[in-house]
Amino acid sequence: MRQNNYDKRIGLFLMTFKGLKVLEAIIESNQHYLISFVCVGDDKNLVEDSSQEIIALCIKNDIQYLNRKDYISGDKVKYLLAVSWRWMIESKGINLIVLHDSLLPRYRGFAPLVNALKNGEPSIGVTALFASENYDEGPIISQKSIKISYPIKIRDAIQLIASAYQALVLEILQTIADDIPLQSEPQDCSNATYSLWLSDNDYFIDWNWDAQYIERFINAVGFPYGGARTSLLDRTIRIDDAIVLPEVKIENRDVGKIIWFDNERPVIVCGRGLLRIDEAVFIDDNTSILPLKKFRIRLR
């Protein structure tokens, strides 16, 4: 039976593909009667931020929604729950639950999934926690861990993470619906690490890096993010796909230079190792850089 009392209802703050998948799971499980409202945010840093799809889903299922700029705290709900949210939420004493793209206390902060993939972590995951005065330091309600193997692209990692988001949120909503208090445990701050936000310059490759790291970097910042970048013939290019090749001994290692072509794909000298570029486009007109007509070229 549907419960109409406000102390069981929640307000959702949703962004990105993960927010969309969470809302879909709530509706499919017939738990959307617990939703008082959905506050929708957009992300200009993503090629596709899913905000319009979230709004369309709310309209289709008669769920109240509003833009983040229109939110005013004071709704009669017991819980607020944020998915992929980038801004501070004024909760005014309401229990605020945050879902974070890491296995806290590691990777507190910004772009945790991107940075975990860049670093080659063997597992990724999601943490549900109560909000605290300092970001990502609150007590942990629950976590989901996912083992991964490399290479893996960010879009595939997001798919895996989205499933973990769905499972966590459905568990939390069921606990709320059953009038069971949400239990939590404090974090072990001695194990905390931090993940910094990314600026435009952080999408550029440093060819002094190890080739394996560059491959992970390219995969970690690809679609729906802006993509790994470098300069070619005074134009900026985006590398969408690349693969590490076996190392050779180079007497005068000069990173960024093409050493040869492999199946008509340029092979680039890295700080350690070699990297073959399989797909890349010029940023200004989105045309492929391949096939290259010059051999003596250096990427910067």
Automatic annotation (TrEMBL):
CDD domains found in the cross-reference section: FMT_C_like
Domain Formyl transferase N-terminal residues, every copy: 93-149
Gene3D superfamilies the UniProt entry points to: 3.40.50.12230
Superkingdom field: Bacteria
Formyl transferase C-terminal domain: residues covered: 199-280
PANTHER family: METHIONYL-TRNA FORMYLTRANSFERASE, METHIONYL-TRNA FORMYLTRANSFERASE, MITOCHONDRIAL
Designated name of the protein: Formyltransferase family protein
Species for this entry: Paradesertivirga mongoliensis
